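Supplementary material to the annual report.
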Amino acid sequence: MIATEKDLKTHTMMLDGEAVSFTEGETIYEVAQRVKTDIPTLCYDQRLEAFGGCRLCVVEVEGQRLPVASCTTKATPGMVVRTSTATLEKHRKTLLEMVASENREIDVDPLRGYAAQELATLVDRYDARGGRFRGKRSGATREDDDNPFILRDYDLCISCYRCVRVCAEQEGDHAISVMNRGFETQITVEFEGLLKDSACTFCGQCVQTCPTGALADKKALRFAELPGAIEKTRTICAYCGVGCSVDVLTKGDTMVGIQPAMDGPANHGALCVKGQFAYDFVQHPDRLKTPLVRGDDGKLHEADWDTALDRAAEGLRRVVDQHGRHAVYAVASGRAPSEAAYAVQKLMRAGWGTNHIDNCSRA
Amino acid sequence: MTSPTDQELIERWRHEPAPLLPLLHAFHDRDGYLSDEALRAVARGLKIPLAELFGDVTFYHHFERDPSRTNAPRVCTGPVCRYQGGPEILAALEKDGATPMPCAGRCDDPVPVLRGGHALAGTAADSLRAHLSPLPPPNPGSHEECVFSAIREPGRARLDGYRRTGGYEALTKAVTELQPADLIHLVTENGLAGRGGAGFPTGTKWQAVADAAAHPKTVVCNADEGEPGCFKDRAILCHDPHAVLEGMTLAAYATGATRGFVYLRYEYPEAFRVLQHAIHEAEQAGLLGGSILGTDFAFHVHLRRGAGAYICGEEGSLLNSLEGKHPFPRNRPPFPVTHGYENLPTVVNNVETLAAAVQLIRRGGKWYRNLGMNGHAGTKVISLSGDIRRPGNYEVPIGLPLKTLLYEWAGGPFEGREIQAVTMAGLSGGFLAADDLEVTLDEPGIRAKGSFLGAGGIMVFDSTRDMIAVAHEAMSFFAHESCGKCFPCRIGTQRLTERLAGEAGPTELSAWIDEVSDLGETMKAVSACGLGLAAPLITESLLKYFPERVAQHVQA
Amino acid sequence: MSNPLADMEKPDVIFAIGTNMTECHPVAATRLKRALKRGAKMIVADPRRIGLADLADLYLPIRVGSDVALLLAMAHVIQREGLVDPEFLADRTKESETFLEHVKQFPPEWAEQITGVPAKDIETAALWYGRADKGAIYYTLGITEHICGVDNVQSLGNLALMTGHVGREGTGINPMRGQNNIQGAGDSGALPNNYAGFQPVTDPENQKKFERLYGRKTDLEKGPTKVTALEMAGDQIRAMIIDGENTVVSDPDRHHCERALKALDHLIVIDLFMTETAQLADVVLPAAAWGETDGVQTNTERRVQRIRRAVDPPGLAKPDWWIICEIAKRLGFQGFDYPSAREVFNELCSVSPIYFGLDWDRIDRGEYQWPVPEQGHPGTPRLHEREFVSGRGLFRVIEYRDPAETISDDFPVWLTTGRRLASYHTRTQTGRSAGIDYLLPEETLEVHPDDVAAWGLSDGGWAEMSSPRGCVTIKVRATRRSPRGTVFASFAFNDTPVNVLTGGGYDPVTHTAELKVCPVRVVPA
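Predicted assembly:
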């Protein structure tokens, strides 16, 4: 062991009969995650402080009378933990049946959000019976909220508070809160208003952490009926210089949405309204689709690449012939990839031997 | 006199510790409700996000947001009052916008009605009047008492009366003669255990806070007596307030705490005024404040009122509430002894525990330990109410047979009736009935029957009561008070309430029992705090003692 | 940024000046919010009471363009109170004596006269920053878009040097880059003074190196900046290639800019849309957009990251690099035959000392922050840890200067410009994304409510705003975010072309325009 790790003592505990080492401060859930022992949860988001609300992640700890929530319980040396006894599995199934009983049943479209299918997946896995524990339903959908980004379908809400917590802890906006208590609990914003009248910045983090699709990406849902599987392509946001990692969602050749990359090195899953929702300029009808060349009539006309490129090169050659190589100047883009900037500067330097190149950072 | 401006109210409170609740109360007292503008001003003044403040305010039952409902009365319809005229008073006051409230802790003197910051009581709408809650009846068993040993002395609620009857002797002795460690030793040796319900050894708790490194440390007196059928703290606070303050000060001396809070339930406005006066007296007399009894020991006590939320009696919720956060229970560990108020070491003791601590420090040695029966240490105050001839607070030796209390001390049931069932721990221990009434009042004895003594509230239901209705009322209380943080409690209390109401659930008996038992088992095993763990004891004990009644109910 | 984004959660004292981070770099701002939750103190200096100011422990409402005065006075207090880090000065800097002597002339009371910030608040800010264990500075265009932009940056540098708040976790001088790849564009050599990797063109060794690489000798003289080039347009400069910039709307003094571009013999614009600039071109070439092309971009913390193609470009649109290489090839230039973006990037790495340890495959997961001088190097999240690029940190003696134009009887109001959360630059992208209009349907002029009344305007009514260069009509919004006497608008909306008014001056070194200060007249329309 090297000396620099002096602050982080490692210990051993027993997890389902296996000796597992852990670092001081790790919770049982974190240890289990690390060694690929799957423990179900609904209120857990690794970026947020553990909450301990859903109780699905309970485990048995030898010497404790009752199961403990593994997400909020720190591992201790010598601890003996069992993660999936018959009793625990029965409690989990009952909990899932309880949760299922408070919502209308729907097929949750994965376009609703990054985590939207978590509940549905667990209900399937535990074969939780939907018809048990029938009774009143919780949560009132806000059909009156006309914002174009975030669907507030609280009929599907299970009060896990991930939206409340992500808004406070991850985004620091504190726009979302919870009103009332018990079964009457309702996710809300100040004075039960619309999102646009609240402190909401439409970053979409609440949508992406919601495990039931109760908060959903309205823009993406426009493509719910579009046939085809959803593909994800990892890339970096097109806007400011922070460089947030995102997944572009596509169906065929249609961009249908954006989801934050939870492991993005610059953003750890955070995004803002532009990165989350302002992507569809890419497929806007205004896009230039063909080269254009100014004709003798003074107007721009569509052209094929050869014509346009010839014309572009010809114009440059003529200027250089008449006025010298210092008569050409190029401005590289701060939006295009580095290959474009490199190519432009190389054109000026390798082509004409000038430093007549700049980028758009001065505006 | 003009009423204070928003800014004046904010300035009055914003530099005080735990300012949110008193500031909200100040706006509420001024306007009779909390307007949007008031919330905006508070959010700005205390730098609390508006959405969170809005959510927090909706959590508390007594914060009115509707300007048309200022000073609307609230009428207790708790498990006792609902059979003592509560519903009738509610109906009579409907014209004034009256709404029901859960048990307001006056079961020995029903029916409490809150109106404009005052607590009235009476059994009919036209006989409501403001008066202090009753003193404990004289101890019928002639057993030596601890917390009630001097409470009936005239003038005990005032400093001079308190001092005349041995008050502040313990503090004087502690500060002048004892080291903090001696104090902790005394408390430990006497076997004092927390009397709020959990029964944790008080000495161990004090020791842990004394050992904790971080400062400043805090003593919180948990006076949020919200358990239905419990009204012992009210008696102590109203009639012996200095005992509580002295107990807090002793705890502070023992642990090195410099600040203290009394977190008092909203439904006890008269206790608020008594305490306010007592704190003032103690400060004037140098018994609280910057230089206690002329020494360099400093301890400041701040009085804070809740706003109607049972869960705030849970210590994590209480601390969150004090800090102005959403009053959800906290995950444990860490415990308040290291991560309490503002995440710093904190003693949280119940009113009765603190009052008892004073006596046993004053008496010293193993005096307290010997007060119990059959090898049990000490006493416990039982709040006895319901269908019983002489309801009231009785300080019993631990180990006293339940039937002795019911039949000999309190006179038994009314003429021509029989005791059908009693609740334990207020409502949290569920019911005891039939042969299980042959039990002694101590934790091991009661736990053997599947219940627990808890805070010591016992409500009696005689043979005229429908136990399904009683159980339904009890479960709706838990559903109403469930904070909503954990799934099993939030959903489970609702589903059990619906099933007891006959609104939902299977109509076939075995399926009904199957659902109710599954809900209960999971709630009892995995709920995040005592509320969810305890609530299913209601259905569990109902099924145990009254299976025929359950069968009738399901088939009906 | 000298320090990584992760460091934004670590300072004890944050000094944010000229950065509207919650709107312009919202995700970076979340990290500052976490630092605040942890107990850090924040000082915010800005003419407007921006969102960040609401979160601040100390807000300094400085008059536009008075940053140097504020920073000199802070240096004065730090010097006077003995908060200078003598070891750091001795080991890591030079010319501190002159500087420390210089700042003695500038007490907070002097700065109060210029900045309008109470002297005691300047004092407090200096004490907090000076006493911090970890003090970090964050700034954006509010510092650079002035005629004294370089002075502003160097004044911040002086503060960091004198306190040793640099080269350690949670410290540093951290400019936030505004565009997704503006850092990468500079890294790649798209600068008139540097080859790729910031190798100066004026160094004959570099000239030789690139002659070997490119097969042609490049001038030893720096080229003109874009601003200068636009001034030379139609005269010495006769042809321009503009890749992905809506120069007409984003640059100051729009009328001048349009005249310049029209004066060219030949203008090639590569873009996604028919922008106001493309409309002036002789040849418009359709580029593949973000999401349609593979490539690399570098973020504000120098993190080199892959972007990937998710869909095909529309119609005939092609990646920018391909278009440029095709033009080069048609001009008969060698070395433009790249099969894909990968080869372009790998060549960039091979010629750049800061990317030398990288290649296309190695950056797949984005874990490297340059400089990465050789293969196997872990990257450099934090700059200046042991020494500065230039060896020792140099103190600069700086004097306060007024903005190029100051308010007068004719133009009695300060206009300052900036950006808003929901729109990006000239809205070529955000304006074409569904729903954004719901949040931000039009541009407004932010005016203090008392000024709205005093100038006869009405909230929601129209105003005519003019400067010596032009006039725009704009809707008025009353808000206390603007101080009295100062108004704010963004330049995002083409139908409210605020940059018609701006452009009174440029920083003499960087040629960055003074977009943050423009005296105007505001009257009811």
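Chain A touches chain C through 113 residues (CB under 8 Å).
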